[in-house]
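Please fill in the sequence for the structure shown.

STRUCTURE ENCODING:
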């Protein structure tokens, strides 16, 4: 089993797997069905798939993917706006690699680059600032997408650009916050889950207390955890035990990284640069208070104000794509008739097949 190969102590792994399977079998027998758990984060989806945990627990635990892939939840209208920005003369669009291949209605950033547009893949927003500094004749627009984990670095890059007095740098911010979308997901009542696996890296910024409402308001236990097989197995053990005992409190199972109140310095950097606003999520529509918008203090670095009048919120989703339902936990990748053909990593129809954190990509590579 690949999960054992990823462990420093295979014997410990066998014992943990045995314990989790026994718990799951007992609970599934009591429920009369498999235990339904959701891994919110796309990195967890990849880790669960690559280690074989999903197939190992098949029939006992149904692991569903949630809205934790930032590329996947970027709205179709924002993709179209990004493509429009790349087409502007004298503009260089800087972005992370996954975003380049996300298909729009008729094009993508990758296709625009092949057609002559300046689309630069960067590994950090600081790289985009350096690009603007070194190319003063070019307008450099960084596509700022991601969750609480990437927002502090983008905020610092805007501060850096301001300190350098750059006038040719801006950010198109589609940053989103995870707690509001989880409230929207659970409040809609569409998906029924027995427990949640929460993203350790997001909680490292927000703190585990930011998700306490899940147990308090919706009566669902949740565990914050990391991304190694041991982390995930331990989270499953805790979750199954909580479901059995009826304890719905959120547990911080990643205390060596996550504090209850989070990273206060990172939170301060976000507040200094951004303000809360509504955001459009693929599959969810508008989620109130879930977006990070660039504040007045740095308005001159807001690409939305600098180059565009309004977002293209009503752009069509790719025909036949069911990424929106997947992100809400309503289906698995195999339920989409396009999965595997015609939608593949080489020729993706939707973003969940593109991103390195996308559920469709995870299932395709590790099924």
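FILLED IN BY: designer on duty
SEQUENCE:
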């Amino acid at each position: 089993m690949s999960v054992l190969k990823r462990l420093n102590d295979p014997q410990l792994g066998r014992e943990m797997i045995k314990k989790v399977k026994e718990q799951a079998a007992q609970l599934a027998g009591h429920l009369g069905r498999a235990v339904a758990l959701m891994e919110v984060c796309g990195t967890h989806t990849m880790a669960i798939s690559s280690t074989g945990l999903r197939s190992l627990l098949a029939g006992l635990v149904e692991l569903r993917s949630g809205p934790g892939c930032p590329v996947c939840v970027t709205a179709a209208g924002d993709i179209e706006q990004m493509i429009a920005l790349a087409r502007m003369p004298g503009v260089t669009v800087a972005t992370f690699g996954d975003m380049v291949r996300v298909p729009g209605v008729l094009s993508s950033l990758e296709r625009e680059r092949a057609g002559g547009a300046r689309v630069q893949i960067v590994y950090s927003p600081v790289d985009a600032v350096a690009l603007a500094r070194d190319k003063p004749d070019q307008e450099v627009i960084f596509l700022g997408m991601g969750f609480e984990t990437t927002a502090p670095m983008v905020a610092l890059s805007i501060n850096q650009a301001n300190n350098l007095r750059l006038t040719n740098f801006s950010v198109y911010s589609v940053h989103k916050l995870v707690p509001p979308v989880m409230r929207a997901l659970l409040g809609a009542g569409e998906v029924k889950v027995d427990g949640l696996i929460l993203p350790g890296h997001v909680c490292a910024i927000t703190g585990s207390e930011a998700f306490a409402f899940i147990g308090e308001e919706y009566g669902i236990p949740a565990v914050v955890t990391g991304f190694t097989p041991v982390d995930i197995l331990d989270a499953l053990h805790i979750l199954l035990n909580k479901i059995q005992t009826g304890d719905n409190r959120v547990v911080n199972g990643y205390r060596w990284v996550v504090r209850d109140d989070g990273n206060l310095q990172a939170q301060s950097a976000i507040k200094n640069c951004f303000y809360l606003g509504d955001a459009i999520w693929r599959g969810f529509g508008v989620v109130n208070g879930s977006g990070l918008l660039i504040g007045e203090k740095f308005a001159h670095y807001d690409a939305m104000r600098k180059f565009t009048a309004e977002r293209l919120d009503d752009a069509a989703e790719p025909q036949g794509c069911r990424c929106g339902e997947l992100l809400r936990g309503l289906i698995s990748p195999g339920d989409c008739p396009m999965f595997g053909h015609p939608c593949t990593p080489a020729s993706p129809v939707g973003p969940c097949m593109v991103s390195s954190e996308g559920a469709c990509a995870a299932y395709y590579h590790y099924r």
